Structure formats: structure tokens, C-alpha cells
Amino acid sequence: MGKGSISVYYGEGKGKSSSAVGYAVRVAAMGKSSIIIQFLKEKKEGDEYRKRLEPEIRFFRFEKSSKNFDDLSEEEKYEEAKNIKNGFQFAKKVLQTGDCDVLILDEFLGLLDHHLMTKEELKLLIAAKSEETEMIFTGRVMNPDLEEYVNCIYHIKAERCDTECCQKLD
What we know:
This protein is an alpha/beta fold. It is 36% helix and 18% strand.
């Protein structure tokens, strides 16, 4: 990756978000800043560590529910879709103002899968990016609408996981 690149970390297993956060830590070590906006994820115990990474790495989550999006009722999903749109608007504002060196949109690919974002909205988001800002999208499935904009695609998958350690990180 590098100046102004767009990358995708995708796959069914674990490691996508961790890889993106690891990249944010590397960027922070170089004196740069990252903003991570999480979508579709449930709130978890122990997420308080994030405050200790500020100001170099800032996390945002706009959804109100503590549950995973897929576990919500249709009515709850409708309400959360409004909150997700707020997160999307925030991401555009971050890009327009140059508020960080790296913008990580965690589980954004799921927004495309659930049809919570359109190809046109994706184009507007990418158009708001400056030449200097890096972007990383994570999610389970690589969306073909995104491919034409991406410099690097990383398919992350587990080779083997037969112990409880994998489930503890879930």
C-alpha cells in the first residue's frame, strides 16, 4: 500500500479487521493518523482499549444496537440503516476534509452485500478521497462494483483452526 491507495481485505474467516487495525498501528508509528469506522458489528466487551490508541487512531461506530446487524429484526435493521447512512456521511466528510491519513471502513463490503449502499454512493465516497489519503475496506465478499477502484486486494482466509482460541476472538 502507499500514498493514496485503496485496498480491500476480504474473506470468510477472521483477520480482516485485525489486519486493518495492525496497519493503522504501523501508520501511527510513522506519525500519521487513522480513522476506523465500523459497520454491521456488534459491540463487544473489552472494546475500551480503543481510547488508548487516540489521537493517532480513532474509532467510530454509528449503529446503536449492541447486536450484529444480521441478528436484528427487520424493524431494527430499518432503524440501523439510518445510523449506517450517518456513518457513511461521516466517512465522506472525513475524506473531504482530509482529517486523517488512512480511513478504514470496517465491514463496509457488507453494506454493499445488504444493499445498504449503492454503487453510486460508493463512487461518491471514492470521489471524495484526496490523492494522499489511503482507504481500506474490509468485509466477507469482494464486491465487483469496488474492483475498478482498488489498488490492492487481500483475500484473508484461515488455513486451519481447530482450537478454542479462534472462537474466543469471535
